[in-house]
Design brief:
- The chain has one domain: NAD(P)-binding Rossmann-like Domain (Rossmann fold), CATH 3.40.50.
- 44% of the residues lie in helices and 16% in strands.
- It has seven helices and seven strands; from the N terminus they run E-H-E-E-H-E-H-E-H-H-E-H-H-E.
- Strands 3-2-1-4-5-6-7 form a seven-stranded parallel beta sheet, with helices on both faces.
- Helix 1 crosses helix 7 and helix 2 packs parallel to helix 3.
């Protein structure tokens, strides 16, 4: 039975990914600040805390013996005009998105490199590619995480580990409020695909990157209904 670690599996895209992998026979361990009862092992961890992530991965390895895949989905979002973002907000975004990716990679990669096999998928955002209004700190942190992903991908590909990212656009998750402009009829109808994505569609792409024999390395695959092309 393959073993996957999914961060942020308590809701939204992370929960959909965890549920799909478990349905397909994976043992799924969650590192999340929210309950993730659909997983086999749930650890209450903030990915911004490196020592806590390291301890969590050690416990997962003690339980299952190995980690075949990691999906780094835990995130943080808030809207603030660019010139009003304070230092604390900047640092929180960077700690969660860049730090979280780095901490998980640091913890899981040694075992993957030793076995010369493994897959890592980071959940990015269309904002990392096209920017956005009132969320410059979020977009910047996601863009920095993409650069980190590509750099890690280059370093570990010779060891048999493939690292990629999926960048969702507007998606039907709890992070998208019911009154969001991205749910408004005029916006949705203007999308090339004519609708926003579902969490299940994002999960299917992640599954393919983990399970299929795709030689994809250091790439960013978009599920964004055509908002950024």
């Amino acid at each position: 039975m393959p073993v996957a670690v999914v961060t942020g599996a308590g809701s939204g895209i992370g929960a959909a990914i965890a549920a799909l992998l478990k349905q397909r026979g994976w043992a799924v361990a969650s590192i999340s600040r929210e309950p993730a009862p659909q997983t086999d092992l749930w650890l209450t961890i903030d990915v911004a805390d490196e020592s806590a992530v390291t301890e969590a991965v050690t416990r997962i390895l003690d339980t299952y013996g190995r980690i075949d895949a990691a999906v780094i989905c835990a995130g943080h979002y808030e809207e603030t005009p660019a010139l009003d973002i304070d230092q604390q907000s900047w640092e929180r975004m960077l700690r969660v998105h860049v730090g979280g990716f780095a901490h998980v990679c640091r913890a899981v990669l040694p075992g993957m490199r030793d076995r010369r096999a493994g897959r890592i998928v980071g959940i990015a955002s269309e904002r990392a590619i096209g920017g956005g209004s009132n969320d410059a700190h979020y977009a910047s942190a996601k863009a920095a995480a993409l650069s980190l992903m590509r750099s890690v991908a280059v370093e570990v590909a010779p060891d048999g580990v493939l690292v990629n990212a999926v960048a969702p656009g507007p998606c039907d998750t709890p992070l998208l409020p019911p009154d969001s402009w991205e749910r408004a009829e005029e916006f949705v109808h203007a999308l090339p695909a004519g609708r926003i994505a579902s969490t299940g569609e994002v999960a299917e792409l992640v599954r393919a990157l983990l399970e299929e024999d795709l030689f994809v390395c250091g790439e960013v695959l978009s599920v964004n209904s055509g908002t950024v092309i």
